[in-house]
């Protein structure tokens, strides 16, 4: 479990992390080794789910040493499928990280939603619905791993 402190509100007790693969965790199909390390550190404390609408084999190969469940989505249904899993896990105990238009609903409904504006950009509506915006997935993962980042960002 990871606690996210919020000023004037009860802390969120996070048990799950949902992360989009294409454009968020991976850039041009590649996952940075530091991202893998950070994901494995998080996997010791919470459940990790990585969404892909591409070839499941590609995401599985890139994340073979990462302790996360790969969730393969259907083209055109990704937004709904992400939201379905979020609701199944419990929005109030889940962080969602993404950057695309199909991440908007998931990020908005999650207990804490993070939008990554990386080199592949981010959808404007996803950016507006997020609780936090970062420029690299490393920053999103560090936000969860390092409580002092929460204090600085959320104004505790």
Q: What is the fold's blueprint, element by element?
A:
Elements: E1 2-6, E2 9-14, E3 16-20, E4 26-27, E5 30-31, H1 33-43, E6 47-52, H2 56-62, E7 69-72, H3 78-89, E8 94-98, H4 104-109, E9 112-116, H5 124-129, E10 132-134, H6 137-145, H7 147-154
Parallel strand pairs: 3-6, 3-8, 6-7, 8-9, 9-10
Antiparallel strand pairs: 1-2, 4-5
Task: Provide a compact summary of the structure.
The chain has 156 residues and is α/β, with parallel strands linked by helices.
Provide an overview of this structure.
The protein has 7 helices and 10 strands. It has a single domain (12-148), classed as Rossmann fold (3-Layer(aba) Sandwich). The chain has a 6-stranded parallel β-sheet with strand order 7-6-3-8-9-10, with helices on both faces. The protein has helices spanning 33-43, 56-62, 78-89, 104-109, 124-129, 137-145, 147-154, and strands spanning 2-6, 9-14, 16-20, 26-27, 30-31, 47-52, 69-72, 94-98, 112-116, 132-134. The longest helix is centred in the middle third of the chain and has 12 residues, at 78-89. The protein starts with a strand and ends with a helix. It is α/β, with parallel strands linked by helices.
Features of this protein?
156 residues; two-stranded antiparallel ribbon; 28% strand; 6-stranded parallel sheet; globular; alpha/beta; Rossmann fold
Oligomer: single chain
Q: Count the strands?
A: 10
What's the end-to-end separation, in Å? 20 Å
CATH class: Alpha Beta
Going by CATH, what is the homologous superfamily? HAD superfamily/HAD-like
Poorly predicted regions are none
Could you give the order of the helices and strands? Answer: EEEEEHEHEHEHEHEHH
The CATH topology corresponds to Rossmann fold
Secondary-structure-derived class:
alpha/beta
As for the number of domains, it is: 1
Summarize the amount of helix as a percent range: 25-40%
Question: What percent strand?
Answer: 25-35%
Name the average pLDDT.
91
| Computed Rg | 14 Å
Return the CATH architecture: 3-Layer(aba) Sandwich
Strand order, biggest sheet?
A: 7-6-3-8-9-10
């Amino acid at each position: 479990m990871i606690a996210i402190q919020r000023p004037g509100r009860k802390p969120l007790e996070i048990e799950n992390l949902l992360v989009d693969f294409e454009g968020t965790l991976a850039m041009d199909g590649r996952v940075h080794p530091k991202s893998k390390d950070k994901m494995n550190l998080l996997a010791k404390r919470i459940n990790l789910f990585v969404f892909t609408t591409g070839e499941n084999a590609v995401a599985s190969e890139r994340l073979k040493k990462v302790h996360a469940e790969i969730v393969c989505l259907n083209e055109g249904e990704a937004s709904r499928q992400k939201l379905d899993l979020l609701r199944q896990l419990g929005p109030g105990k889940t962080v969602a990280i993404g950057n695309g238009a199909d991440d908007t609903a998931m990020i908005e409904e999650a207990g804490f939603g993070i939008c990554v504006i990386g080199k592949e950009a981010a959808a404007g509506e996803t950016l507006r619905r997020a609780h936090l915006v970062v420029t690299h997935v490393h920053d999103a993962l560090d936000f969860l791993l390092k409580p002092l980042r929460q204090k600085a960002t959320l104004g505790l």
